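USER: Fancy drafting a protein?

ASSISTANT:
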Amino acid sequence: MWLIYGNMILISNNGELTLLFLLYNEAYFITDERIGERNKENRMTSTIHIPRLGVGAVIQNENNEILLVLRNRSPEKGTWSIPGGKVDLYEYLESCVIREVKEEVNLDIEVKGLLTTAETIRAEDGEHWVSVIYDTIVRSGEACNMEEDGAIGAVRWFPIDQLPDNLACFTVPAIEKLRERAGLEK
C-alpha cells in the first residue's frame, strides 16, 4: 500500500511502515528497522541519492562572444562554465536560470529557448547532475562577478573559436550545440 501526501510517501509492506520523504532532490527513508543511521528523533534512517537538477545559460553578446565564469568551488573547481546553478524545490526551470544569472553575473536575461541538456555522472564522488541549458539574450545589465569571494573566481567573454581548454563538463554540450548551429567544427 502507498499513501502519497505532498512530498511524503507512506509505504506499508507486510505490516512494516516506511515513510519516504523527498527533500532537496534526496530521498530519505525512515523505518523502525535496525539499518541505517539514527536521526535526532532516534529513528533509523537511510539515504538514497537521486540525480540533482541544474540549469545553465548560454549568453552571447553583440560580438558573438560567450560569457563564461571560472568556478571557484567543487564540482569542477578551476574550470570555465556557463552561468547557472541548481534548481530549488518548486522552482520553474526558466525562473531558475533567470535567477541564477542575476545572482552570479548581474544580468537580466530572457530565455529564447532550450538549447540542449547535459548529464554529469561521477559515481566515485556521489554526483549525478542533469542540466537543462537554455539559449538566452541579455535584456539589461553589465556582466560582473557578483560572487567574487564565493563560487565564481572570474567572469569573461570569449570568442566562440577561442575558448579555454578547461571547460566544465556540462558546458561542453552547450558549446558543441552552438558550434553546430553556427556551422563550425567541434
Remarks:
- The longest strand covers residues 108-122.
